[in-house]
Amino acid sequence: MRTNLKKLTATREDYIRAVYLLQEFKTEVGVTDIAEKLKLSKSTVSERLKELVREKFVEASHYTSITLTKKGLALARSSLSNIESLKCF
């Protein structure tokens, strides 16, 4: 079953980008790291991560680090590339 990327909200993209950026500096990324980066509560982050796991953008389970899947990694890179392109204008 494929996820329609058009249904991906800006909020979900923010989470994927946050995981990507945190992974560049940390060996393990947790809910607390993402919550601090996005200035949200840990419970809010946990709920959104469940959705991203179901949609196969991230891999996570209780008490383990959060990692992007190939699908999530591709989206994060594309999203960051688009942001950089907009900054040039």
Task: Give a description of the structure.
The chain is mainly α and 89 residues long. It has a single domain, classed as Arc Repressor Mutant, subunit A. 62% of the residues lie in helices and 4% in strands. The chain has 4 helices and 2 strands; from the N terminus they run αααββα. It has helices at 10-25, 31-38, 42-54, 70-87; strands spanning 58-59, 67-68. Strands 1-2 form a two-stranded antiparallel sheet. A hairpin with a 7-residue loop joins strand 1 (58-59) and strand 2. Helix 1 packs across helix 4 and helix 2 packs across helix 3. The protein starts with 9 loop residues before the first helix and ends with a helix. The relative contact order is 0.18. The model has no long low-confidence stretch (mean pLDDT 85).
Kindly list the characteristics that best describe this protein.
89 residues, mainly alpha, Arc Repressor Mutant, subunit A, two-stranded antiparallel ribbon, 2 strands, globular
Number of helices: 4
Largest sheet: 2 strands, antiparallel
Name the poorly predicted regions.
Answer: none
Q: Helices and strands: which structural class?
A: mainly alpha
